[in-house]
Amino acid sequence: MSEFPRAERMVWRGLACTRLGLPNGDSAVVSDFGAQVLSWEAQGQERLFLSPRAVLDGSAPIRGGIPVCFPQFNQRGPLPKHGLVRRTPWHYLGAEVQEGSISASWCWDAEPSLHADFPHGLRAVLQVQLTPAGLRVQLQATNTGSTALAFTGALHSYLAVHDAETARLQGLEGQAFWDAARGFVPAVQDGSVVLGEEVDRVYARSRAALQLHGRHGVLDIAQDGAWPETVVWNPGPALCAQLGDMAADSWRQMLCVEAALVNQPQALAPGASWQASQHFQVR
Ligand SMILES: O=P(O)(O)OC[C@H]1O[C@@H](O)[C@H](O)[C@@H](O)[C@@H]1O
C-alpha cells in the first residue's frame, strides 16, 4: 500500500507484469503476455478467477483473468481460436496517474506478414485503469495498413464466484441470446443466469449494467455500445473435467461475462480506429 497511486514493474508467478496499486489497498496485476489482467483486488477481495492450473510459461493462453480475444472471436474465422493476441507478449507503454486512479497501457502490432490468414497492418492498444473499487479495460484497434480489414473479439473476463450455489447474474432478463451449448437456438433470457450446466451464450448487449451477486456483494458490469454483445460462459462440470488447465471444480469458482463483438465483424478502413471498454465496479 502507498500514499499515492502507483505502478510497479515486477515478475509475478514467472511472468513480466505491472502491478497497479491505490492508497486504499486496491490493486491489479497485468501480464505483458496477452496484456492480460491476472488479478484485481478490490475491498480486500480477489474479483477475478485465475485457474489453479493455468499455464503461465508463455506456451499457451492463460486460463483466467481477462484474456483479450482479438482479432477473431472463438472459431468464427480462419485464425487460431480467439485470435492472435492472447498467446503472445505485448509491449508495455507505461503508466499514468490521474486523480485518485492509475492506468497502464500495452500495444500489439501486426504487420501484413504476421499471419497468412490476416495479411493486414493492425495496432491494438489495451488500457487498464484502476479506480477505487473499480476496473476499466479498454481495447483500441487501428488499421495501420493499406487494405480494409474486419475483426471480431472480446474481453473474456473471468469473474470470481465464491459460492456457486447462490451466485447469480442479473440484468440480462428479456435479452435475446443463442447458446452454443444448446444448438444455437434463438431464445430470450428468463430470470437470472445461475451456475450448474454449461452455458455458452451470446446475448445482445444490455444498456444497463449487469450485476453479479455473490458472497462478497454485488459487482456491476458495464460495457459500452461498441461491444454489441455480451458472452456468458461457464463450462459446467462435464466440459470443465475435459479442460486440462482447469481443476475439476473450477467451474464452481468462475463466470465469464465477456464484452464482445461477435455477430457482425467490425470493418476498419486504412487509418481508421475503433475502441470499446468494459467496466467493473464493486458496490
Ligand atoms: O478454451 P478457450 O479457447 O479459452 O475458450 C473458452 C470459451 O470461450 C467463450 O468465449 C466461448 O464462447 C466458448 O465457446 C469457449 O469454449
CATH architecture: Distorted Sandwich
Helix-strand pattern: EEEEEEEEEEEEEEEEEEEEHEE
What is the averaged pLDDT score? 97
Structural class: mainly beta
Beta-strand segment tally: 22
Bound ligands, each once: 6-O-phosphono-beta-D-glucopyranose
Question: Helix count?
Answer: 1
- Please tell me how large the radius of gyration is: 18 Å
Q: Can you tell me the CATH class?
A: Mainly Beta
**End-to-end gap:** 22 Å
Strand content: over 45%
Estimated helix fraction:
under 10%
- CATH topology term: Beta-galactosidase, Chain A, domain 5
- Counted up, domains total 1
Work out the oligomeric state of the chains in this entry.
single chain
Largest sheet: 9 strands, antiparallel
Q: Which spans have pLDDT < 50 for at least 5 consecutive residues?
A: none
Order of strands across the main sheet: 7-8-9-10-22-19-18-13-16
Shape: globular
SSE topology:
Elements: E1 6-12, E2 15-21, E3 27-31, E4 36-42, E5 45-46, E6 68-69, E7 91-98, E8 101-110, E9 122-131, E10 134-143, E11 149-155, E12 158-160, E13 168-170, E14 176-179, E15 186-188, E16 193-194, E17 199-204, E18 210-214, E19 217-223, E20 229-234, H1 236-242, E21 254-268, E22 273-282
Antiparallel strand pairs: 1-2, 2-3, 3-4, 4-5, 6-11, 7-8, 8-9, 9-10, 10-22, 11-21, 12-21, 13-16, 13-18, 14-15, 14-17, 17-20, 18-19, 19-22, 20-21
Bound molecules: 6-O-phosphono-beta-D-glucopyranose.
